[in-house]
Amino acid sequence: MKLGIIDTHAHLNDKRFDADWEGMRSRAEAQGVVACILPNVDEDTLAPILRLLQDQSDWCFGMLGLHPCSVQVNWEEQIAELWKHESEADWLAVGEIGLDLYWDKTTLELQLQALQVQFQKAQKMGLPVCLHTRNAHAETVAALREFRPDLGGVFHCFGGNYAEAVQVFDLDMYIGIGGVVTYKQTELREVLSKVGLSRVVLETDSPYLPPVPHRGKRNEPAWLSEVVQVVAQACSCHPQEVIETTFENALKVYPKLSA
Questions:
Q1: Under CATH, which architecture does the 5-258 domain have?
Q2: What are phi and psi of 246, to 5 degrees?
Q3: Fewer CB atoms near the end CB (10 Å): N or C, the chain?
C-alpha cells in the first residue's frame, strides 16, 4: 500500500453515501486517503459492508463485530449469525465492539458478556480489536485487563484525558483520533501534546463527528486533512510527519493492510 492517510474507522456503508459514492471517494483520494476501514455494527450493516469490500476492494477493508448498542438479550444468537460470514471476507479486526453506558446502563452485563466472547473470537482469529467506549472507559480497561492473553487494537474515537491515554498505551493499544480533536471543548490537543504520535491512528467515524469547519454536515474521509493539520499543531510537527507516523501505526495495528 502506498503511503498516505488511512481512515481507520468509517461507516461508508451508511445510506448517506449512496448518492455520491464516487464523488466522496474522489475527494478523499485527492486529499491523500489511500484506504478506509469499515467497522460492522450488527446484522443489518453486514450485507452492505460485504458489497463494498467486493466492489471497492482496492480501497475498503472490513471488520466483523457486534456494536455494544446493538447487543440484545439474544446476543449469543446475534454473534453466531455474524460469524457465519467469517469466511466471506479477509477481516482486518473484530469490531466495532466494546461498552456503551451513555444510552442504556441497564445492559452492561449483557454488553460485558458479548465483549468477552468477541475478545475470544479475536484471539482465535489472531486479529486486533476495535473498541467503542462511551462513558465506559474504566469498565473497558478492566475488561481488557481481565482478558488474557492481551489483545492489540484501537480505542476508537478516543476522547479521554492524559491519564486515560496512558492506561490505553499500557495495554499496548492505540487511540483513534478524528474530528473531535478540532472542537473547542476537548482535551485532546493537550493530550496529544503530551503523548505524541507513537500510538495514534486517524479516523473519521464518517458520517458522524465532522471536523471544524464542517460541523453539522455529513462527515467524509476527505476531511481527515483538517484533522491532520490540527494534530500536527498539537504535536508541534509537520503535517507530513502526522501522515507518515499514523500510516505506519495503522499498518502495525492492522498488519493485513500491508499483506
A1: Alpha-Beta Barrel (3.20)
A2: -70, -30
A3: C
